[in-house]
Design goal:
single chain, alpha+beta, Aminopeptidase, seven-stranded mixed β-sheet, about 35% helix, globular
Length: about 170
Amino acid sequence: MTDIPTWTIREAGADDASALALIGAATFLETFAGILDGDAIVGHCAAQHSGTAYRDYFAAGARAWIAEAQPGGAPIGFALVGKPDLAAAIDGDIELKRIYSLSRFHGTGVGAGLMKQALAAAKDHRRLLLGVYAHNSRALAFYRKQDFVDIGTRQFNVGGKLYDDLVLARPLAA
C-alpha cells in the first residue's frame, strides 16, 4: 500500500458549486490562518466561497475543473477561469480566478493538472492573468514554474481588510 494519494480531474459545472465552495473555503482557511486576520478570513469565505458565488461564476460564463481523491471522489482541489476582473487586463485576456488544492495533495501533480486544464481553456486568449497574495511564497514559486511573470499589483479585499497582491500573467498567443 502506498501513501501517495491519487486523484482525477473532470470539468465541473453549476451542480458542483457546493463542492467548489467547500474546497475554496477549506483551502483559503488552511493557507491563510495565522497570516491574515481571522475575522477577515471568515467574512471572505462566507461571501466569496459560497455555492451562490460559484453558481454566479458559471452563469457569467466561467469554466472550472475539479480534482477528486480516489477512491471515493471526495473534492480536493479546483481551478476556475473567467472574465478578468483585474485593472491590468487588456482585450484578449482571461483570468485564473482560483486554483486551490488541499495541502495533503501538494506535490502530487494535482496543481499542474489543474493548471493544464486552465491553460487549455485559455488557449484562444492573449494572456492568462491571476492575482496572488504577495507573501504566498509557495504559490508564487508554483506560478513562476508555470511561466507567469509579474505585471502589477493590487489591493485585495479579504473580509473588509485590504492586503497586497501581485498580478501575474502568462502569455498564450503567439
